[in-house]
Amino acid sequence: MAVYKRGYQRYEGGRTSHWNRILVMPRFSWQRLMGMKVTIVVLAVSMVWPLMCAAFIYVANHAELWQGLGGGGLSNFLSIDGRFFEVFMNAQAVFATILAAIAGPGLIAPDLANNALPLYFSRPLTRSDYILSRLIVLLGMLSLVTLAPALLLFVMQVGLAGWDWLAGHWIYAWGVFGGFALWIALVSVVAMACSAYVKWRVIAGALVLGFFTVLSGAASMINAVFRVDWGRAINPAMAMNQIWRTMMAMEPLDGPTAVECAVVMCSMGVVLLLALSRKLRPVEVVK
Q1: pLDDT tens, residue by residue, 259-284
Q2: How many whole angstroms separate alpha carbon 260 and alpha carbon 282?
Q3: In 3D, which of 170, 124, 162 has the Cα closest to residue 22?
């Protein structure tokens, strides 16, 4: 065969589907994360509170177990209402943040440190596909400590209280699952941004936790110095708590409304995504 016929030729063979290409990286990332002992420990510890909540649901739906222990005060305490789900969400949100600090730094930082992005982007993968594939990893991991336990608790409550309870309290399902989805999205974007800008995993994990701690302190300082309450909108924990309460038709807390908190959180997420997208380049000119 002549030499000129051995030149570059475009690949004309079959291709996998778009979603198969995106899910390749999450599959290997999940295997690596589940092989880490610290991940297993955090997942195991995060299940303690849901188990306690499950026991609470069982006792609350069996009045014969506590009927002779008290009057109306105990009956009001042993009730499955918005306050119960709010406490459950606040506790599991902490574990989700810790898990993101453990799993997030190992997603993008190694690719940047080893100059692997040109290898990824030379395949039929766009920058959005790469971000989505890494985001799927965190969404799956964080769902194990948030959405999965919440689903089991709801199934248990409906099984014990009946479908009439669900018909009268469906708003709690909307608040819990929608609220957890918002928190998972925010925490995942924060973890990915920290992983992209810090190459050391330990420092990137500490930065994820520091992001929420610093904003919480900044919000308290703004409120104290200027004697206002709108500073709570930049505190992710308090802002999300306000959103959750509104979604579950509970009385809102003092300070910015749920709409204002949602606008601030969405703006924060967009800024982090733009910063992440700017960092992910297939080539970079070093001066």
Answers
A1: 999 999 999 999 999 999 888 877 65
A2: 37
A3: 124
Q: Report yes or no: 217 and 183 within 8 Å, Cβ to Cβ.
A: no
Maximum distance among all Cα pairs of the chain, rounded to whole angstroms: 96
Domain extents in the chain: 20-62+78-279
Q: What is the pLDDT of residues 227-262, one digit of tens each?
A: 888 888 999 999 999 999 999 999 988 889 999 999
CA 227 to CA 246: how far, in whole Å? Answer: 25
pLDDT in tens, 34-84: 888 999 999 999 999 999 999 999 988 876 665 655 555 566 667 888 899
Q: List CB contacts of 68: < 8 A, sequence separation 6 or more.
A: none
Closest CA to 143 of 173, 184, 103: 184
The amino acid that residue 236 corresponds to is P
* Cβ-based neighbours of 221, under 8 Å, separated by 6 or more: 231
